[in-house]
Amino acid sequence: MELVLNNIKKSFGDKIVLQDINLEVEDGEFVCILGHSGCGKSTMLNLIAGFTKPDSGDISVNRVPIGKPNQERGIVFQEHALFPWYTVFENIAFGPTVQGKSKEEVQKIAYKYLQMIGLEPFKHHYPSELSGGMKQRVGIARALAGQPKLLLMDEPFAALDVFTKETMRKELIDIWNELKTTIIFITHDIAEAVYLADRIVVMKQGVIAAEKQISMKRPRKIENSLVQELQQILIN
C-alpha cells in the first residue's frame, strides 16, 4: 500500500487549513503526524479517510484516487465510537459482517482480533462495562477486523491515563509488528511519536515543517535530545 498526497490545499471558508502538502507513505510504514491543536493534522486525516475532499491537489492509494471512505482505510478515533448495543465480540465482528463474509469467516476473523487484544474474558460484555483502555482496544480490533490496508488513528490514546497510555502504545507496536499494516497516527505528544513512529511528520500552521526518520530499535527508550529537537521545530 502506497499513499501519496500531492500538492494538497484545503480551506474552510476564508481560512486556509492545509497548503502545499506533499507526502508519501510506504507500505507497512508507521508514520506519526505531530503538531499542536489547530495545525491541520486531523484535517489531513479526514482527507485521507475520504470524509472530505481537498480544494486542490490529489490523494491516491496505490495510484488510485481517493474518492470516499472505504474498507481499505480503517479508522480509530480519540473517542472509541463503539456501538453501545453490541457486545465486544459483536463490535469486532461488525466490519466483516457488513462486508458480506460468511458467518464462519466472521467468527474466525472476530475471534482472531479478540485474542490479539487479549479480551477473550470480556467477549460478551458491553462497552459500558469496560474501562477506557479496554474500549480503545476494542476500537482498534474493530478497525483491524475490516482488514484495512491503511489504519488511520486520530489521537486514540489522548483521553487515557498515563499508565494506560504506556500499555496501549506497547500493545499497538506488538499488533503492528504482527500485521505490518500501514499506520498513520495523529498526536500532539512528542514522546509518543518518538516511541511509535518509523517517521515523524511535523506540522505547523497548515504546512509540513519537518520530517524526521526514527531509526532506534524497538522497544524504545525516549531520547531527550530527540524530544528537544522536535520541541524546537514546533516552537520556532
Description:
The mean pLDDT is 93. The chain is α/β, with parallel strands linked by helices and 236 residues long. It contains seven helices and ten strands. The radius of gyration is 18 Å and the shape is globular. Helix 5 links the parallel strand 7 and strand 8. The chain starts with a strand and ends with a helix. The chain has two domains: 156 residues, P-loop containing nucleotide triphosphate hydrolases (Rossmann fold, 3-Layer(aba) Sandwich), CATH 3.40.50.300; 62 residues, no CATH class. A six-stranded mixed beta sheet has the order 6-7-8-3-9-10, with helices on both faces. Strands 2-1-4-5 form a four-stranded antiparallel beta sheet, with helices on one face.
